[in-house]
Amino acid sequence: MEVKYFDIHAHLNFKDFDADREEVIARCREEGVLVNNVGTDLVTSREVVELADAHEHLYATVGAHPTDWKKGFDEKEFHTLAANSKVIAIGECGLDYYRIKDESEKAEQKKLFVQHIALACSVGKPVMLHIRDSASKPGLAYADVFEILTREPGVRAHAHFFAGSWDIAERYLARGITLSFTGVITFARGYDEVIRKTPQNMLLTETDAPFVAPEPYRGKRSEPCYVREVLATLAELREEDPEELAAALLHNALRVLALPAGKFAIDK
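Structure tokens predicted for Hydrolase TatD (268 residues):
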């Protein structure tokens, strides 16, 4: 397989792909897209591991979404899943204050996040961060996540679907936290400054499929192959050669997720 892209955050196990999952997975292989599918609870984490075990070009991230804190965290079961060689990160974990109804929920989310960090440290894998602010307090979730991470300097982290300001991005980048962006950047301009200023070696690509399909697929189901549109927009905003940027960001993903570059034929 000749690899061109790495969609580091997708959900091919979701019901949105039930009708044509294998066809979508085959397209990823044909177009040279490695895919990291991300669990949101114990059930979906098992699903993404099964997909990864069945397909050479698929990987998995296991964990519980911050808003699923009521389900608890089965440390033993998650540890068993995390030990799989196709599992490359722990998450998606972090803090989501977007629809929070009570301040006590923040404490529960923080507790869940700390449990993910402990798991990540024990298996030597990075955490896949999910961070979403409330409209009334922009930046608070990012600040709280950062504060928790400062207590665990040894854990590696990646911020998926980054939506913070440049001031926030600077702090995260200084901590060694890489950033990725979705198809939203093809039709929304609020991300442009961060994209232009982020060092090339700290950028990754993702789709968050089936969500937020990029132009020209906006309003439809997203899929990992659309990562090429995300890459094209990144190259345009940064005024860089698309092919050279694609190669650089692919190597970034392999580095961040500790995957051997020699496993696949890398398109140059």
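The mean pLDDT is 95.
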